[in-house]
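Changelog note: in this version the structure field was regenerated for every chain. One regenerated record is shown below for reference.
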Amino acid sequence: MTVRGFAWRVVAAIVVASALPVAVLRVVPPFTTAFMLAHKWPLARGDEACADIRYAWVPRREIGKNVFRAVIAAEDQRFAGHAGFDFDAIEDALEERGASGHSRGASTISQQVAKNVFLWPGRSLVRKGLEAWLTIWIEVLWPKQRILEVYVNVAQFGRCTFGVGAASRAFFRKSPSALTLSEAALLAAVLPNPVERRVEMPSGRVRARAAWIASQAARVEVPE
């Protein structure tokens, strides 16, 4: 085998290894994620393990539109229009970091799905590169509706609580189809740090953020 032939086989193997699991999860709900497993069997000393992970997949048709509006308003208001990366948000984050020395997140919902479903907790250039690579495949192989459906089903909304199905029942004793906009906004307000920010005991800052999310929700576009 020539060097060129070997290189093409390696490239083909990488493409298949990346695209296949993404293609499967276009139609199959994730059974679990690395983030859920990390909470069940934490690697870092001092991290408290979850005896039980609360997670129950809920299909899109059984999730109220308030949930989708709230998470888009909170996390990625240009979600319907971008192809996986919000370069305006990235530029704004870089400018803010240069001005203040502090950085804020600029990850889109698509990027967060890539991270939450396929990768592991933590920060590194390797993981960020894999996240970008998988985000491309997610945008190519999944419609926007599926990306949003998976996101609200695997996002962490509380300690040991993943997905809007488990969260709505744990915190509001109702199904996600029955959540009011203020309730959905409160869930979205704890992202992306649902351990320090609490839905069941929201701080004044969390309540203020929830109010802002609710005010933004009418302006965002939810892919149909």
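Spot check on this record: Residues 97-104 have pLDDT under 50 and may be disordered. The CA atoms of residues 69 and 217 lie 5 Å apart.
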